[in-house]
Amino acid sequence: MASNNITKQEALADLWTLSQRKPEMKTRILSKLESEFDVSVDEFNAYDSTMSSNAGVDALDKRAEALADIPGFSQVESMSDDEILRIFEAKDELNAKIEDIGRPPTEAEWFRAGLTAEERISKLRPFYETKKAEEWEQLEYPLDPIAPILGPLGLLIEVIGGGLDLRYDFKEDLHERGAFTSWNPLTGFGAWDIAEFKVDPDTGRAGFSPELLAIEDELETLYGTKRQYNEMMQEGGYRDVYRLEEEMGSLNQIIMENQLLDPRSLGEK
pTM of this prediction? Predict the structure, then answer.
């Protein structure tokens, strides 16, 4: 069913143009066309084929006339007929590979959850990083510059804490900063600068605020969902579809920019 008073044909034309400009979005475009405008994949492919075939038809005769006495060149000066044929054959091969893999199951719960998680992460993560940086600046060692976690012991805690954090997708039990974020040699110049051993002098609270940790917990859940999504995409080979569609987009760009026609459709091969 059409939405926003846009007809099915208008949606097909607009979204086809978008797919040529941003081939990495083709899967989402196909999903949108099918769910919102009742345009099937076959209809889209037929439209794509028609548009590609019609591109430059009027100019083809003029170019062919100009190249009539040049062996092996009938469409453009910059590309031989053999190279043009290779481009269209490569496009056919990519189409065949995409069809063999199939489209991602866009209605599957894991697929929709993964996309939702990615969108939420992209929105939430910058705010988390900003608040985290602000709170780091508030934290101080109670006995600074003599840190309570000294030398090798601090390094040991850093190694153990980092190892335990591997069980998470995003969050940490001990929050530490990287090297050279501090001038204190007792913390390895920040290499084992641990938030949980520092205090906010304004609140007397050790470590980060409950508000920041709540955002971190949400991000942990979101990254877990994203990991499952990525695993399913990898298992089904759907990631390869995106790569193949990018290659297809590059070929389509060459075809459109040069207004090429498939020599086979002209009976030349």
Answer: 0.57
